[in-house]
Amino acid sequence: MPTIHVSSVIDAPIEKVWERIRDFNGLPSWHPRMVESEIEDGKAATDIGAVRRFKVASGATIREKLVAFSDRDHLTTYAIIEHPAPISNHTATLKLEPVTDGNRTFASWTSTFDAPADKGDEIAAGMGENVFQGGFDALKNHFAKS
After folding, report:
1. According to the model, what pLDDT value does residue 43 have?
2. Distance separating alpha carbons of residues 48 and 140, to the nearest angstrom
3. Beta bridge partners of 56
4. What b/e readout covers 83-113, taking b as 16+ CB neighbours within 10 angstroms?
5. Which of 16, 25, 71, 143 has the fewest C-beta atoms lying within 10 Å of its C-beta?
6. Is the pLDDT of residue 146 over 70?
7. pLDDT at 85
8. DSSP secondary structure letter of residue 44
9. Considering the chain, what is the average pLDDT of its residues?
10. What are phi and psi of 136, to 5 degrees?
11. Residue 88 and residue 82 in contact, taking contact as beta carbons nearer than 8 Å
């Protein structure tokens, strides 16, 4: 079972970073690899069980289910339920914590999933670099301009 852990420090207060990423349907507004998104079945983006269907820049469609959400703890956990890569049992958590030295934000994105033995490391590397670190880089760039 591959495990991914990517973390970063974002030079912005936790409230501002959370405001930018908290919308489960809002990936295209802050992540450069995501181009469109919709919540299925008319649910709210904070409803546990909500399913988002989104497209990535390459054209692939991914569906993810919201498993946990907390404004108080600044976290969201989701599971991929449809993905073009051969993965299953996927769970990921994006969590923010305050860095009191400089009023910054520590961001951590972790994931586990099952994949064929010959594909797991490659999928994990791509997810870690392109999705997780790519998202953190976009957030850092956004707040550097603010």
Report:
1. 92
2. 28
3. 34
4. bebebeebebebbbeebeeeebbebbbbbeb
5. 71
6. no
7. 86
8. -
9. 94
10. -65, -40
11. no
Q: Could you count the other beta carbons within 10 Å of the beta carbon of residue 78?
A: 21
Spatial neighbors of 18 by CB under 8 A, at least 6 apart, are 71, 74, 96
Q: Nearest-CA neighbor of 27 among 115, 125, 109? A: 109
Domain with 51 in it: what CATH number?
3.30.530.20
Structural domain including 40 reads 3-145
Residues 6 or more apart whose CB falls under 8 angstroms from that of 97 comprise 14, 74, 105, 106, 108
Count of CB atoms situated within 10 Å of the CB of 124: 19
How many domains is the chain built from? 1
d(CA 103, CA 86): 40
Query: Using CA atoms, how far apart are residues 80 and 64, in angstroms rounded to an integer?
Result: 4
User: Residue 2: what pLDDT?
Assistant: 87
Amino acid making up residue 121: D
Kindly tell me if the per-residue pLDDT of 34 is higher than 70.
yes
Which H or E run contains 28?
helix 27-30
